[in-house]
């Protein structure tokens, strides 16, 4: 489900976006001038010259030019040491990060060295100043909030940073300082490239000193905005938080394609608030029907907004990183805003709801067991049993820990119509909202009986509520919301297989006699081993051949406590009373007639 609208984000946008292709300045001739003559000619005459990404020169291999979607060899001759030396002499000094540049350009030359330190390969990457790319998020830049850009290498993060710096410095008249670790944002040499406008640039002597230069910029040069490229260490993440807490707007990039990558990265998790494990009390864990250890955010995020750059002109915007992270840790996806450049050259803003997004993103798991599966969990096949045994993602015990506040949140965020979930065989599934119900038991019943039911974590998309009776009795808010939405509430007295089974049968309007005629003993066992099935078969035969037809009690063989529990549940399924008696290891079950 998606909705879109076209927006002119600023008065300047009309002229800036009048052409779909923004103006580009690449100084390509200066990059070609460092190459040997026999390589310059093929590139100068190449049909895709202005789309060149990089030139690869590796010792003993043929030179290669890379373009979007293809790579072409430039010569039949292999690269020699003399060819490499020819290029090295015409570029700047290689720093500690093995990068060099060409003065007054944005090109980057990166070296590959052998074990003795000799350069045996060069990557000559084209640097381009692309004007107009920031128009897609100009309103966000003008808002004055800190922005984090994420995306795969080559998608244009550094180009976007450069344009953002120019807009903030020239158009918005702010004091902007760029922390330029590899001279990649403002180019090589002491004079910054004109692409950054009036923004100032601080060079970093060695990459490991970037965090120190970040703090120095704040203390010495009174910036209103700091631009940082490639935050990659814990010290840099800490420095970024220190800067943000001093009221300075941050615009930076980090390693990772999506926010989920930062959650899983302990080094950079502080950029999104940091992640910690919280242990719930028994009552709270039981109320949520979950494990006792859950993940929550430790602090406010360093960056208030985040942008996932999927493509050069298609970006996913998270305007509230704190809310997005909280949703991800709960196993849910928030509504996502996607911005792109339409055919008319205008910015198109599309809002996609979580159920649509979840179909487009593959399931991910963290080491902690939280997962990203969207809102619905269709359960129709036994092949999904291993997936369902993973710990269930839980709401965070933050300000919304109070049940009433949690329901209020859901009431506010689920007013949109959602499509009905569909099972593996194409049948419509009934979405139910469990409250206080054991997820493991619920999954097991639905899976074994192949019931057309989907579990949802959102009250607003449910067609019914399945709850523990004692929990509903103490929470009038749930009953109030269910009544306002005309949602039926089905309750169970306890978290047992028979109770849950009967509640689901009532919910689906299934006659219990249809399933009692051919009872599936695997419903009452988790492992399904021979001992468990033998004990359950013994109990079934005793019930069906003696207790019910003859009205006589039956005493079963001694069993372990685990197996006796299964036999108790089987007896409860027949609505019969059962008791355990005797001492271990001879403790056994006795089933009484109704």
Description:
The protein has 594 residues and is α/β, with parallel strands linked by helices. The chain folds into four domains: 27-127, Beta-Lactamase (2-Layer Sandwich), CATH 3.30.450.90; 130-364, Rossmann fold (3-Layer(aba) Sandwich), CATH 3.40.50; 416-512, Rossmann fold; 521-592, R3H-like domain (Ribosomal Protein S8, Chain: A, domain 1). It has 21 helices and 30 strands. The chain has a ten-stranded mixed β-sheet with strand order 1-20-19-18-17-10-14-13-11-12, with helices on both faces. Strands 5-4-3-8-7-6 form a six-stranded antiparallel β-sheet, with no helix packed on it. A five-stranded mixed β-sheet has the order 23-25-24-26-27. Strand 24, helix 15 (439-449) and strand 25 form a beta-alpha-beta unit. The longest helix has 21 residues, at 530-550.
Structure in a nutshell:
By secondary structure, the chain is of the alpha/beta class. The chain has four domains: about 25-125, 2-Layer Sandwich (Beta-Lactamase); about 130-365, Rossmann fold; about 415-510, Rossmann fold; about 520-590, 2-Layer Sandwich (Ribosomal Protein S8, Chain: A, domain 1).
Provide tags for this entry.
10-stranded mixed β-sheet; 30 strands; disordered N terminus; Rossmann fold; 6-stranded antiparallel β-sheet; 594 residues; Beta-Lactamase; alpha/beta; 32% helix
Percent strand: 15-25%
Main sheet attributes: strand count, strand direction, barrel closure: 10 strands, mixed
| Percentage of residues in helical conformation | 25-40%
DSSP helix count? Answer: 21
Mean pLDDT: 79
Rg from alpha-carbon coordinates: 32 Å
Write down the domain tally: 4
Helix vs. strand class: alpha/beta
Shape: elongated
The CATH topology name of the largest domain reads Rossmann fold
Strands side by side in the biggest sheet: 1-20-19-18-17-10-14-13-11-12
Instruction: Supply the CATH superfamily name of the largest domain.
Output: P-loop containing nucleotide triphosphate hydrolases
Give the CA-CA distance, first to last residue. 53 Å
CATH class designation of the largest domain: Alpha Beta
Low-confidence stretches: 1-21, 355-419
Work out the number of β strands: 30
Tell me the CATH architecture of the largest domain. Answer: 3-Layer(aba) Sandwich
Protein name: AAA family ATPase
Domain R3H: 530-594
Region (Disordered): 1-22, 359-399
Biased composition (Polar residues): 10-21
């Amino acid at each position: 489900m998606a909705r879109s609208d076209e927006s002119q984000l600023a008065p300047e946008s009309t002229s800036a976006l009048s052409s779909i292709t923004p103006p580009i300045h690449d100084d390509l001739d200066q990059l070609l001038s460092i190459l040997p003559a026999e390589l310059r000619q093929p590139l100068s005459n190449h049909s895709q010259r202005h789309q060149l990404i990089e030139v690869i020169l590796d010792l003993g291999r043929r030179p290669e030019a890379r373009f979007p979607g293809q790579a072409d060899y430039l010569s039949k001759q292999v690269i020699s040491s003399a060819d490499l030396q020819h290029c090295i002499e015409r570029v700047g000094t290689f720093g500690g990060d093995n990068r060099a540049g060409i003065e007054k350009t944005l090109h980057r030359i990166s070296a590959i060295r052998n074990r003795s330190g000799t350069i045996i390969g060069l990557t000559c990457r084209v640097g381009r100043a692309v004007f107009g790319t920031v128009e897609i998020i100009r309103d966000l830049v003008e808002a004055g909030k800190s922005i984090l850009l994420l995306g795969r290498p080559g998608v244009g993060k550094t180009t976007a940073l450069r344009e953002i710096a120019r807009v903030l410095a020239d158009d918005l008249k702010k004091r902007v300082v760029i922390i330029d670790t590899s001279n990649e944002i403002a180019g090589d040499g002491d004079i910054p490239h004109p692409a950054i406008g009036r923004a100032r640039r601080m060079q970093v002597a060695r990459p490991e000193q970037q965090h120190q230069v970040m703090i120095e910029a704040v203390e010495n040069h009174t910036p209103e905005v700091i631009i940082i490229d490639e935050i990659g260490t814990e010290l840099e993440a800490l420095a970024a938080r220190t800067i943000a807490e001093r009221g300075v707007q941050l615009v930076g990039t980090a390693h990772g394609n999506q926010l989920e990558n930062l959650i899983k990265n302990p080094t950079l998790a502080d950029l999104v608030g940091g992640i910690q494990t919280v242990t719930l009390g028994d009552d709270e864990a039981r109320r949520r029907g979950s494990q006792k250890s859950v993940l929550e955010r430790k602090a406010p995020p360093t960056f208030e907004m985040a942008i996932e750059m999927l493509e050069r002109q298609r970006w996913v915007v998270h305007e509230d990183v704190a809310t997005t992270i909280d949703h991800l840790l709960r196993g849910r996806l928030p509504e996502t805003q996607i911005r792109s450049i339409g055919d008319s050259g205008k910015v198109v803003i599309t809002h996609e709801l979580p159920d649509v997004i979840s179909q487009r993103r593959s399931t991910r798991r963290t080491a902690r067991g939280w997962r990203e599966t969207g809102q619905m969990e269709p359960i129709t096949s036994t092949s999904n049993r291993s997936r369902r045994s993973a710990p269930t993602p839980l709401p965070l015990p933050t300000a919304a820990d109070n049940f009433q506040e949690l329901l209020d949140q859901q009431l506010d965020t689920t007013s949109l119509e959602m499509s009905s979930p569909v099972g593996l065989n194409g049948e419509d599934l009934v979405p139910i909202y469990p409250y206080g119900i054991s997820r493991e038991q619920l999954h097991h019943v639905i899976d074994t009986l192949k019931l057309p039911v989907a579990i949802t974590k959102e009250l607003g998309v449910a067609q019914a509520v399945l709850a523990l009776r004692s929990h509903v009795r103490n929470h009038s808010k749930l009953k109030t919301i269910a009544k306002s939405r005309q949602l039926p509430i089905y309750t169970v007295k306890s978290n047992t297989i028979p109770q849950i089974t009967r509640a689901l049968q009532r919910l689906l309007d299934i006659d219990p006699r249809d399933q009692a005629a051919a009872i599936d003993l695997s419903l009452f066992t988790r492992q399904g081993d021979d001992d468990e099935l033998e004990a359950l078969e013994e109990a079934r035969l005793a019930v069906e051949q003696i207790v019910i037809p003859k009205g006589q009690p039956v005493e079963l063989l001694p069993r372990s406590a685990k197996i006796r529990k299964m036999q108790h549940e089987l007896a409860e399924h027949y609505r019969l009373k059962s008791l355990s008696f005797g001492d271990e290891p001879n403790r056994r079950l006795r089933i009484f007639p109704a």
